[in-house]
């Protein structure tokens, strides 16, 4: 009887604890989450977790993340304060590519699928490239040539969305620019670290989960120990 009670108690407690523990890992894998990474080439890298629903266009993704974009015929000239401004033609849009050769600094565009282990250079216009759930769009201002350039930092959707959640948990520290933008909401201007996903109203923090798990485990052992003592002492 006592053994059955211990087993039942353990099963009940772990049934309560395990879903809470797995919730933290799953919360960054929501079906509508995607991410964009914008590397300005000077150490300033913006990472943004977006709720894209079924998918949004590349220009909408940049807009949702709070970036102003200047382009010419679909070619990106400037993002935010970086790039070639007030372009009125292909030459002025590629103002850092005077010869059109290898020594060319421009905004290179990359994509990354959920199952991909690396960024893929994209020759397709960003307005026609959809940002779908579990995928990434990446931008980097730097030297390159036609069809080839150094990619943004090697990150995944989980990395970006988890970083956005963790940023708010680090009190007294200034994290790298990471934002989480739910569908239909206006983001904070680019460059300001924001964390909407870190609001603990919808879930438990990692510290809370750890404390809960430790308490539940201690309770299991306490109950089990008490029952065994009663059994040995004829209680």
What are the key terms here?
235 residues; alpha+beta; Ferric Hydroxamate Uptake Protein, Chain A, domain 1; 2 domains; seven-stranded mixed sheet; three-stranded antiparallel sheet; 5 helices; elongated
Written account of the structure:
This protein folds into 2 domains: 2-26 and 204-232; 31-201, Beta Complex (Ferric Hydroxamate Uptake Protein, Chain A, domain 1). The protein contains 5 helices and 12 strands. The protein has helices spanning 2-26, 58-64, 90-93, 157-169, 206-232; strands at residues 33-39, 45-51, 56-57, 69-72, 75-79, 82-83, 104-112, 120-121, 130-131, 136-145, 148-149, 178-181. The relative contact order is 0.18. Residues 17-26, 171-176 and 184-209 have low confidence and may be disordered. The chain is 32% helix and 24% strand. The longest helix is centred in the C-terminal third of the chain and has 27 residues, at 206-232. The radius of gyration is 25 Å and the shape is elongated. The chain is an alpha+beta fold and 235 residues long. Strands 1, 2, 7, 8, 10, 11 and 12 form a 7-stranded mixed beta sheet that branches. Strands 4-5-6 form a 3-stranded antiparallel beta sheet. Strands 3-9 form a two-stranded antiparallel sheet.
